[in-house]
Amino acid sequence: MALASVDLGGTNIAAAIGTADGEILAERQIPTDSHLGPHAVLDRIAALLNEMAPEGVEALGLGVPGLVNLNEGKTLFLPNLPTQWRNIAVASLLEASLGCPVYLLNDARMAALGELDFGHGRSVSDFVFFTLGTGIGGGIVLDGRLRMGALGSAGELGHQTVVADGPLCGCGSRGCLELFASAPALIAEAVRLIRMGQAPHLLELAGGDLNQVSPILMTQANDSGVAAAIERAAHYLGIGVANVVTTLHPEMVVIGGGLAQMGERLLAPLREEVTRRVKMFPIDNLKIEASLTGPRAGTLGGLALARRRGMI
Amino acid sequence: MALASVDLGGTNIAAAIGTADGEILAERQIPTDSHLGPHAVLDRIAALLNEMAPEGVEALGLGVPGLVNLNEGKTLFLPNLPTQWRNIAVASLLEASLGCPVYLLNDARMAALGELDFGHGRSVSDFVFFTLGTGIGGGIVLDGRLRMGALGSAGELGHQTVVADGPLCGCGSRGCLELFASAPALIAEAVRLIRMGQAPHLLELAGGDLNQVSPILMTQANDSGVAAAIERAAHYLGIGVANVVTTLHPEMVVIGGGLAQMGERLLAPLREEVTRRVKMFPIDNLKIEASLTGPRAGTLGGLALARRRGMI
């Protein structure tokens, strides 16, 4: 029998049916419509999975955007979902409607678990995973195991301070990495350049529509200001990466999430910044590479979590 | 038979004879006189230990200020010692003259090992150790084990960037924590205040002698500028601590080294800063405490290393 993976986001729900080997058999995406409340949304997830796998699944791995109680399968605090999502026994509610065990995990840790079981983790046992998208999350793998910390929250790498007295972050702290190297941060800088008339090529590539501006599109523009914006993001990302390398000296740093598709335009200046910052020990052997699971890290992580029956 | 512990510093050599239970039987300190070259200095260490324990010792744990090859017992790069200290087979040279096995470890990791075996590590299995002195070093303990990283260099916590475009650090990077929260950083700020006439009480406490200014003395002065300097150091230390907590979410952060003697004057504002910075998960249960091994962390770490026969 197959396994199921669901990534519950603030905007969309991404569901997949797959095997214990990480083969994806079917994928679907539906809007979260979180305003309907947790019970209605969980019913929609169950209906979707029943439709995708009418014969049922062995287990479901569910990624949740925030803090979860892993042992009790409950949500604690989900910053991007309405407050009625607090303290919901998501696992047992879904278990009742699906008839299979359900395992919860923070979505960034779930993506890291996908990379561990089906990506670089197959050849490297100590790595740090950054997932760069709307936010920046992460996961720490040491000795082949995902480090959870006391609450499954180890690896919140986007909320390291990189600018001591920087702007206020959504999390409540200041100057977090997420403010400087996430997709919204890059897009905001691109929009500023466009509005100042300094990114005519990017504007042309976007068909004159600011809604079309994305980090990937930015890599295709030949405006010098846009290139500088990418390098600035890589500079701050490099500080965050260097701090973790200085702390843990892993074998590899894996860059995942949507921004990993920027490829060498992001990775090359990132490697240079890390080399400038980590001076206490030689890092000739440190690899900084794009994720092997790419945009499927979360989906594969859900299959990994289901396959592992929640044993991380 | 007893164990020996030696902490080889750029200025002094601290030697001790003790037991596997961490009881210190004898302690001695002599100048390093590193200009004499490694062979002469190693001969002096052997002579000192033979004098302190004429009947010999079972094993020696030796802390070295820099990068070492743990398996081969060789020094690699010691920034505070002359360059002829590179690539010296310290362990085998000392083994020949002492007639017992010798185990090398970076000095900050050795202090962390002391705290692990004889300090907070007896009750806590996940902690981050900061040693604050002339420099800032550290060690990471997860699941009761000291994390070494690829080269025994994990835990270089003083070389996290806390000011993105800050001043040049001795390590070659910029804006490292060590530049803002070490003893020299605090003393420099105190001297500036004294020279500007803004720290009359501290100058009085120092007997008018700048050589007597120390972080501990600073905690006794009632000059408002001196209080602000301590809080500023705690602010930057808090950023470095918060970054590691956000990354690993340990049970405890242990503050060791000479500056730990500043007590609550440093720890209280440090805790406040960490609370301001770590917002992604609740840290009500996180403890931030002074080391239990205090100034003896390194000495006890050497005994731990000898007792463990180098197995970390």
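Chain A is about 35% helix and 20% strand.
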